[in-house]
Amino acid sequence: DMLKGFLEEGYPLYCGESARRIIPNIQRLLERELARGSTVFFLCDHHAPDDPEFSMFPPHAIEGTAEAEVIPELANYKGEVIPKKTYSSFFGTPLEEKLKKLKPKKVIVCGVCTHICVLYAVADARIRGYEVEVPVDCVASFDEKSHHFALDYMENTLGAKLTNLVTSRAKPAKFEPLEAVLSGETADVYFARTVEILRKEGINPVATMEFFAGRAGVLCGMEEVKALLARVLPKGKCEVWALAEGEAIKGREVVLRITAPYQSYGLYETAIDGILAHCSGWAT
Questions:
Q1: DSSP string covering 75-96, please?
Q2: CATH of the domain at 227
Q3: Could you give the CA distance from residue 271 to residue 253 in angstroms, rounded to a whole number?
Q4: Ranges for the Quinolinate phosphoribosyl transferase N-terminal domain (predicted)?
Q5: How many other CB atoms are there within 10 angstroms of residue 276's CB atom?
């Protein structure tokens, strides 16, 4: 579903910048696989104007419209377009028969959205006995929590192999936060005072804090930040969303979002900002 309707701004189901970020990686993937002699299929949403799916989603990818076309960044790569009317790449399409003839060693699935059509494609392929690979930096969704849920489900329930096209999936090095950071010694006076007041008042509101880059660059230091948050945030009462270590980012793009009882992380805002800025080469 790497279609204009999902990847170009202005359409009702535009998936956002996180989806556009995977386009260069998919280009690399296609170039690699075509050079190896692999067969490429573009599975494309293709709906009638009165499709029942429009009771759940706004009308999109209607047959004969530009919205249903493969994005220009990928359209010139050699591949067969297969229209589909449901989340499934197999139901009501010729894909199953084509794969039977090809007898591939494995099926590589990429595109959008991770938790909808990508997940169904992986499930359908695994049910039919195919070895499936999903490059995690070649899939995306408009919903980050659902994106990660789908990746976990594909790997641990469906048995798909998750890989990274650009970087190794080796586990990152383990970091231990400095005691001076854990003790709150590095806290800016404003954050420290806020936590002090909340403790005296006996309240601990759940708050959301976002960190963003002042300019474009490459994100570094996120693994150190995650190690710190793992030590200080209460179990089961918070949500942390973060871009991946080493990811290219745009100016003013959110790189980290913490939702948790404020007292648990208020003393560490300065440290988090400092780690990300220092490692990424920015000013705080």
A1: HTSS-EEEEESSS-SSTTSSHH
A2: 3.90.1170.20
A3: 19
A4: 188-280
A5: 23
